[in-house]
Amino acid sequence: MRTTNPTPAAAPATTETKQQPTRRDFMKASTAAAVSAAALATIAFPSGVHAAGTDEIKLGLVGCGGRGSGAAVNALSADSNAKLVALGDTFADKVNTAADNLAQTEVGDRVEIPDGNKFHGFDAYKGVIEKSDVVLLATPPHFRPLHLRAAIEAGKHVFCEKPVGVDVPSVKDVIETCKLAKQKNLSILSGLCFRYNEAVVDVVKRVHDGAVGDIRSIAGNYLTGPLWVNARKPGWSDMEWQVRNWLYFYWLSGDHVVEQHIHTIDKMLWVMKDVPPMKVMATGGRIQRVQPEYGNVYDHFANTFDWANGVRGITQSRQYVDCDTDISDNIYGSKGVAELMNYRITGATEWKRKASPTNMYDAEHVVLFNAIRNNKPINNGDYMTKSTLAAIMARESAYSGKTIYWDAEAVKAANAKDVKSDQILMEMTARLGPKDYKWGDFPVQPVVVPGVKRA
């Protein structure tokens, strides 16, 4: 496949490496999460009170990076009778580092992981699932459908990070797994954390109750700075290098419109009461991050979603060095404007509130443990799969340069002509990544150029 990249004005790999969280940063964040847990018992949230009961719940973590370790602290903070008993990751060094760091947090007295409960390799998830009652899934998104299915089949409750897949077939697999979870009365709670931010919940409820009138349009930004990158070391195979740098390979992350911008897209769908968009036209590319260490993902996207009722959602995301950042979501209605991230409504209804007193990362785990303790399973499967699919829809539009429609009904609703099957999201069949997971050669696919057929 041909690729065309402009001359970069990009920061070198060492600049992004310096952006990685330090061990001290991790400890500070972990301690803050544990301290904030004291407020969880009184949070004014739909799930009610702090989890009751005294029975021990055994937690297992699959995916021992920063997000996974953070989720473990959040989970332990949410239930005083939870204990972390198993860790799993593709790499043994990640498992050992996480075990050491977690033991030093404010919840470290409930981190009890014998050597026999530390698993590494592509099958590490199997050992963790066997040892646990609740499984925390925080691996690269490509592996999530496989791990989620295994956990539910084994009868375990799950905290499932976002996104839930990187291609349409894998997300369809997750939809079926979520149905199985309902049949087995198991909880699946999504890592789409803004839905567990009390202040944002309050704003969205008011929008749904008519505070801004009829919704006309939605604008969402997720404009951030650089993320971490691991320079390739001698002896690393193609596969090891890619998995250790999973953010930068679309078969592992789905690209950042799926991996990170999904938060913006999820809030947009939430405002639209989880009705999928009819179509999207998107664009994107690479301007700063063009060196080989950044794999084959883009560094910016801009997306225009349309609904059958005339609402238009315009979202954009980027990961640039030394540029302004902005994470915002504004809903424009016939009677006013709601600013989700400022917790404010202006226009016919003037209203503003303070931020939530509780960290949303803690709050979502409180909801999960309440569901488990009270035997009232929670299942976030509907919205976590729809939001993942909408994000994939945007990526496929940017990659192809074509309008992508949700399904055949959306094509009819849009009165579109000459639409090819590869422009219909729910008819896409391509699976990203290798058929078998093994160390060794695995050439990097070229950066996708819109209008040029992918290899």
Can you put this structure into words, describing what you see?
The chain has 455 residues and is an alpha/beta fold. The chain has two domains: 13-194 and 372-380, NAD(P)-binding Rossmann-like Domain (Rossmann fold, 3-Layer(aba) Sandwich); 197-355 and 384-427, Dihydrodipicolinate Reductase, domain 2, CATH 3.30.360. 34% of the residues lie in helices and 18% in strands. It is built from 15 helices and 15 strands. It has helices at 13-17, 23-36, 66-78, 92-103, 124-131, 144-153, 168-183, 198-208, 238-244, 250-253, 256-259, 262-271, 360-373, 381-400, 408-413; strands at residues 57-62, 82-89, 118-120, 134-137, 157-160, 188-190, 215-224, 279-285, 300-306, 312-319, 326-333, 336-339, 344-347, 351-352, 404-405. The strands form two sheets. It has a nine-stranded mixed β-sheet. A hairpin with a 5-residue loop joins strand 9 (300-306) and strand 10. Helix 3 (66-78) crosses helix 13 (360-373), helix 7 runs antiparallel to helix 14 (381-400) and helix 12 crosses helix 14. It is globular, with a radius of gyration of 21 Å.
Characteristics:
single chain; 455 residues; alpha/beta; Rossmann fold; Dihydrodipicolinate Reductase, domain 2; nine-stranded mixed sheet; six-stranded parallel sheet; 15 helices; 15 strands; 34% helix; 18% strand
